[in-house]
Each structure stands twice: as C-alpha cells, then as structure tokens.
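re: ur question from earlier - yeah i can do the single chain one, its not a big deal. heres the input i used so u can compare w yours
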Amino acid sequence: PLVWQGALRLPRRGAAAELEIRSGLQNVLVDTPYPLGKKLKERRDSQVNLVFGGDVIPVRIRYGNQVSAAFALENRERRWIARRGEIRIGQGEARLPSDDGFHAFARVDKLDIDAWRKIMTTTETGGDTHSSEMNLREVDLEAAQVRVLSRRFKDVHVAAVNSPDGWHIDMVSDKVTGTVTVPQRPNDAIVIDLARLYIEPAESVEHVERGVSTAPPPAEDPRTARAFQLSAADFRYADWVLGPLQLNAERRTEGLHFTELTLGEAPTNISAQGSWLMTSAGASSRWQVDLRTDD
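and the output i got, formated as tokens:
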C-alpha cells in the first residue's frame, strides 16, 4: 500500500487553509521514461500543497529532488480549470505565473524522445479522450544528450516561444543548429532555417545503452504531415559533406508532394522532385532525381 502523511492547517477566520500531503511513493510504479520514471520499491520523496480560500486554489508539487510544478486551479462557471502554471525539471523551484498559459523548463543529462513518443502515442490511442484548455506558452530544454529518430545529439539547447502567429524555436546542438517557425494555421508551411544539419545513420540495437528504449519510433502517416520549407547551409550525411540543402514540400490529401530538392553547389549538384503518400499498401515514397556536373 501507498504510505503517505497529510496535514491540514486551519488558520484563524479570514485566512486560507492549507493541505499538505507527503509520501516517499514506495510501492508506486511510475512507468515512464527517464527522468520521471521510477521503480516500484524506489523511494522518491514527494509533496503536494494546496491552499484553499477563494475561487483560485494554488497547487505546488514536488517530485523527488528534480521536478517542481506550480499551477492554479480556477473556478470558472462551476468548473475547476488549470489555466496557468509552470514546471521545472532540474532547474530549481517552479513559480506560479500571473498570466494564463503554461511554461516548461528542463535541464537533464539525457532525454529519449523516441521513448516518450511511444508512451504518448499509446496514451492517445488507448482510451478516452479528454478536452484540454492548457495553453503551452514556452519551453526551454537543455540536455547533454538527446535521442530522437534513433539518432543521438549532444549539447542540446532548445528554446521555444508560442506567439499569436505560431511557435518560434531556436535550436543548438552538435549536429543541428538553426531556427524553426511553426505557424498557428495548419495549412501554412513550417519554415526550417538551419546553419548546419548533420545526420548520422540510425542506431542499431547493439549501440543503444541499457535502459533506453530500442523500439523504433512510431510509424508516421503522411496524410498528417504539414507542408514545410527546409534550408540548411551545411548538410552532411555520415562522413559525406554534401553542401547546401533546400527541400520544399506541399500538402496533398494523400500526403506530401516534394516540389523542390536541391543539394550541393556547382560544379556538381543534385535536384529532385518526389512524393510521400499513403496508398492501399501503406506509406510509399517516389523520387525523380537529376544529377548535374560540369566535369
């Protein structure tokens, strides 16, 4: 059974009451990837504080030594809704923002996005759906190592801000550096402008460290992909230095049509057009490539 302790502080008339709950969370399994997951018998001292005294209930959560969260439950039309809050992982104590919206800050030694995507995909397809009024306004991530699409990136810093016209993202790492703009309107193209894009071959199972998911990332459906414009001043694959890259894609009912792919500079460059479509046999891609050289 879960062992916990609770304390209810009832001050004098006119002041707010506070409920505090503490637990080491032994006998609780948190089946999520690092850094939030924990084993059944592992101790992780945690605390929840709620302050009662009006139409707003401030809530503070502490999960182990790394995770701190603060949010406000607000009574709006007889519904308790969390409209503002902040979570910090490895970055000190969370503070409650004054404006609507949620902010997330994390500083971790490693992050396996492939494993998290698998968890989130299972959650989205495995049961009831819930409407959410959460408005994520800002994300700031620092990680010594990130694994995504079966590839590793080091010294990663991602700063993302949600503005009225869309998300603006700045990325820095050993292999990818640049900016991404994701418009609010889903029919508008995502714009990716990179100073460098270095892609390594996907990891084999033998190269994946113990405790990290070896499952491939969830299969993508081209019909859900957004149009995009990708440019990279310095594109490399493995040990091949390939030069500038430009790749543009337009959205179609069945998927994406690649209107432009140019790679390299004179005297040798590659241009291509292609598609990534959903067919009766599954996702399928086709390319028509033109290699030009003055040699």
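Residues 26 and 287 are 55 Å apart (CA to CA). not sure if urs matches, ping me
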